[in-house]
Amino acid sequence: MQPLPPLAWSAPTTIDEVVAALAEGVPGEVRLHAGGTDLVPNLKRGVTSARRLIGLGRVAELQELVDGPADALGVGAAVTLDDLGRDPRVVARWPAVAEAARQVASPQLRRMATLGGNLCLDTRCRFYDQSAFWRGALGGCLKADGDACHVVPTGRKCVAACCADTPAPLIAAGAELELASVRGPRRVHVADFFAGDGARNHTLAPDELLVRVWLPAPAPGTRAGYQRLRRRGAIDFPLLTVAATVVVERDVVRAVTVVVGALGAVPRRLRGLDALAVGRPLDAAVRAAIAAAATRQCHPLDNLGDAAWRQAVVAPLVRRTLEALEPATAPDAASLR
What we know:
With 337 residues, the protein is of the alpha+beta class.
C-alpha cells in the first residue's frame, strides 16, 4: 500500500475560516479535502502534491441543500454525490444531474465523493495518470515535469480531459457556481468555470472556495437526460459523456442544449442546434441531425486512448440521450416532508 507523504492538516468550521486559511497558504502547497476520493490516491502516487490539507468536513454550510429565489436550489459543494442523486427535489426537477451523480464510480465512493470535488476533478490523460516513476521514464509532459505533449507532440497546451460526470448536465441546466474568498463572493456560470488547458482547466483562484452550486428552476416543458460511456460498468471514469436539455411546448422544440464531455479540458456545448430542432418535433429525423452535428463538432484525441472508437460512438450516444429524455417536474410536496 502506498503511503501518503507528510502533510499538515487543519479542519475549520466556517466558510470564513476556510477562505482565511487559503489566503494565508502558499499557492500550490495547500489543497482542500472533502471526500478525498481522487485527491488522496493522487497524492499517494505523486500525481499531485501538497504540503497542507484543509478539511471541509466540519463546515456544515457546505453540506446543505437550500431553497433559493425563483425556485432555484442551492447545493453545497460538500454534498455527497450519493445524497445529490437521491434528493427528491433534484430527481424530480433536474433528472440529468441526479443521474450523473448516480453514475459516478461505485456506491462506496459516491458516499464519500462530493459535488464540489467532482466539478474540480483533476483532468485525466493516459500519459499523466501514472506513478511518478512511470511518468519520469517518458521525461514528464506539459501537465507535469516536462515540456512535451505525448498526445499532440507539436501542441503547446495540455490536452488532458475533464472526465467528471456532473459538469455536462450542470451546463445543460444553466447552473451557476457561488465562490468565496477574502476578496469577497462571486458567481460564475458552470460553462465559464472551465478553461481550455488540461494542466489547469478551471478558473478557481488558489485562494477561492467553491461554496455552492445554484440550479435554476427548469422551464415548463423541460426534458433532460444524461448518458456516459466507460470501459466497465462500475468505477471507471467516463470516456465520453452526453447531457441534453430540451424544452418542448405542444410537441414542438422551443430550446435545445447538448453538452458533450470527457473529450478535452472543457465540456463542449454543441453549436447550431436551434436551426436543426427549434420549431420541429423531436422525432427521429431531428435526433439524427443533432447526432450528426455532434460527430462533426467532436474530435476525440488519444488522451484517454481509443480515439477512433470514441469518435464512432459520439452519434449513437447523443441519439440514445435524446431518446431517453425525462420530464423535469415540480417535486411532490409529500416527498419533501
